[in-house]
Amino acid sequence: MAAQAPAADGGQKQPITPRSARGVRTRNALIAAAREVFERDGYLDARITDISKAAHVASGSFYTYFNSKEEIFQALVEQVQEEMLHPHLRERTGITDPRELIDASNREYLRAYKKNARLMALFEQVAQVDEQFMALRIERGNAFARRNAKLIRTLQENGQADTSLDPLITAHALSVMVSRMAYMVFVLGQRIPYERLVTTLNTIWENGLQLRDPAPEA
Predict the structure, then answer these.
(1) For the chain, does the N or the C end have fewer beta carbons within 10 angstroms?
(2) Looking at the record, which segments are called Disordered (predicted)?
């Protein structure tokens, strides 16, 4: 089980990341249980006692790993964010063609969004009433944009995309388009066939960048 460091100001203790396998399992079980309770009861009505019960741990054990409901919700946000960022896509897939890369990236994001749709809806709601989670939501969007801006900049340098575009602003615009369409389809229930959704988003990406094949070598 993880120890807790005493707070320097005499306030809440700072939970320490568990080092033992048992501690890791317990913390992960609490996060999984929190997801179940938050999705079932909503953020405001979720209770720590219900999270502990769903994780099959004593209520007191919760505070070994988290100080509050807000803190475990943040841990859940970070876990889902890591999944949805699908890092190192090129390294994992070996894809180098930009059109194929855009397609693979959009597909991974949409699949992850669909899988986490109930939680994504909850994130949206909590971000409107909690400044801390609004900041997390903004940073998640910034992380997507920074990654996509890197791709756009590379395409511009290779003569494959419109060089008049600001890479970061363009990345924000395209990322927001994909995320809001995902919200509209998977949370609000707009009926758009998955394949049509993907191909349409891919086409808008390509047209927006004025994507073209690299110039042939002399």
Answers:
(1) C
(2) 1-22
What digits encode the pLDDT tens for the residues 141-154?
898 899 899 999 99
pLDDT of 59 reads: 81
User: What is the rounded CA–CA span in Å between residue 107 and residue 113?
Assistant: 10
Across 102-122, average pLDDT: 91
Closest CA to 26 of 58, 48, 70, 50: 58
| b/e 163-192 (16+ beta carbons within 10 angstroms → b) | eebebbebbbebbeebbebbbebbbeeeee
DSSP structure class, residue 13: -
Tokens of 85: 């960022």
Question: Are 195 and 103 within 8 A, CB to CB?
Answer: no
d(CA 76, CA 64): 17
Q: What is this structure's pTM?
A: 0.78
Angle (nearest 5°) at CA 9 between 48 and 65: 30
What's the sign of the alpha-carbon dihedral 131, 136, 140, 146? Answer: positive
pLDDT for the residue numbered 8: 39
Report which listed range, 94-98, 143-147, 168-172, is most confident: 168-172
And the tokens for 103? 């397609």
Residue type, 89: L
| CA proximity to 211, closest of 170, 178, 169, 182 | 170
Whether 1 shows a pLDDT value over 90: the answer reads no
